[in-house]
Write a structure and sequence with these properties.
Strand content: 5-15%
Number of strands: 15
CATH class of the largest domain: Alpha Beta
Radius of gyration: 23 Å
Distance between the termini: 40 Å
Strand order of the largest sheet: 1-3-2-4-14-7
CATH architecture of the largest domain: 3-Layer(aba) Sandwich
């Protein structure tokens, strides 16, 4: 789906007709790709924000394209860039940074935003989000639609099981022990409520990275050219994930669908879920029970990966388009706009200043769970990101699936994945 704000398009068309020329009536035309698949409220809010900017900057025409999923968006942006017609800017996954650099299609923000004021702006975001935004001493992405996974729990289910409804599991051991108490079965022995649900479809590496981080191991280096998939700590984390079903019986066996997880939570099929803080508004609006939000449970340490999308500026833009793109990104990530985006979607406002706005202070006073993901940033690590990222993560995801479904042991699956990743990444070292 594509939208161009009708008032702008009409003005441009009228002016062009009047002047008898095909050139734009605006000083600058920008094309902006946005991953609409993040949900209805997100799409509505990004449209409102973009329209607000356009109204305040009548010389800038923004052609905002709903590009589909994150995968669709990066694919369409790369296809357009290879064809010589890239968008000027796009929201694309932070982990695609190395791919975009490798394709030589994006600009470093430092190269076009290098005043003292610009440098302060680049330093204004949470350091945890910049781990997937910077490499080689340069900034390639600006955090916007960012998240971490968190744990949601059904307080009513906890009460019914005789647990403290205000206390989420703080450790791996507690998640197992609480999970066992929370499992419910019918008269035939069929499970009607599982203890916990950790999705393993779509991008299983991301939630699994919560476990590896808690087990104090990093999956890839900061240069994006070396993975550590077969580290014994990674093997131990995968064995724990498999054991939640195979040994402890607190989670459904097999591959668990990402998209169906909030619905399973709402319908009482599971008492706890791991999912993105980007689902926070969805859960708040649709859970028919009182719920809680907590950091992921610790093992050797607390921790979780960051996630979500960054703004990128593409090459082959005019100097005027580059300046307008920077101005738009600065505006939409400014505290007031970032706070509006966070409140509408549940994504984490990417700078401390956004949390100091009156609107955000009132929001968290009314809804304290919104603070959990922000507080977890103190323990966060970079999301798995490498050169040839889609190929490498596909290999890793396949390894996770083979262990989860019992086709291979965790150790064998991860050794094979590391061998394949080495083969791909060796040329980047």
């Amino acid at each position: 789906m594509k939208f161009i704000f009708k008032s702008l398009r009409l003005a441009a068309s009228t002016a062009a007709f009047t002047l008898g020329t095909a050139i734009s009536a605006y000083a600058v035309d920008l094309q902006f790709y946005f991953p609409v698949a993040v949900g209805g409220m997100a799409a509505q809010t990004i449209e409102e924000l973009t329209a607000e900017y356009a109204a305040a900057n009548p010389d800038v025409n923004i052609d905002a394209v709903y590009a589909g999923s994150y995968q669709d968006t990066v694919s369409k942006a790369l296809t357009a860039a290879r064809g010589g017609n890239p968008p000027q800017l796009s929201v694309i996954l932070s982990v695609d940074m190395f791919t975009l650099i490798d394709e030589d299609v994006i600009l470093a923000f430092d190269d076009i935003a290098n005043s003292e004021e610009d440098k302060k702006w680049l330093d204004s975001f949470y350091p945890a989000f910049m781990k997937n935004s910077q490499t080689g001493g340069k900034t390639y992405g600006i955090p916007f639609q960012r998240s971490t996974p968190v744990l949601y729990w059904n307080k009513e289910a906890f009460k019914a099981a005789g647990l403290d409804a205000e206390k989420a599991p703080a450790t791996w051991e507690e998640m197992v022990s609480m999970g066992k108490v929370l499992v419910k079965k019918d008269a035939s022995g069929n499970v009607t409520q599982w203890g916990v649900r950790i999705p393993s479809s779509g991008f299983p590496y991301w939630l699994f990275q919560g476990l590896t981080t808690e087990n104090d191991v990093i999956l890839a280096n900061a240069d994006g050219n070396q993975t550590d998939f077969d580290n014994p700590k990674v093997v131990e984390a995968l064995e724990y994930l498999v054991d939640l079903s195979a040994k402890h019986g607190v989670m459904a066996p097999g591959i668990i669908e990402w998209g169906a997880t909030p619905k399973a939570f709402f319908e009482g099929n599971t008492a706890m879920i791991w999912t993105s803080t980007g689902n926070l508004t969805n859960v708040r609006n649709n859970a028919p029970f009182e719920f809680g939000v907590a950091m992921l449970p610790a093992n050797k340490r607390r921790g979780a990966p960051t996630g979500g999308g960054n703004f990128y500026i593409f090459k082959d833009s005019s100097e005027e388009q580059e300046k307008a793109s920077i101005d738009f990104v600065k505006w939409i990530t400014a505290p007031k706009q970032a706070a509006k985006w966070s409140m509408a979607t549940g994504y984490v406002a990417p700078s401390p200043a956004a949390w100091e706005t009156d609107e955000m202070k009132a929001y968290v006073a009314d809804f304290p769970p919104a603070l959990v993901a922000r507080e977890q940033l103190d323990h966060a690590v970079a999301e798995l990101s490498t050169y040839q990222n889609q190929r490498v993560t596909r290999i890793f995801n396949d390894a996770l699936h083979s262990a989860i479904t019992g086709k291979k042991s965790a150790e064998d699956a991860l050794k094979s994945a590391q061998k394949d990743a080495d083969r791909i990444l060796s040329e980047y070292r």
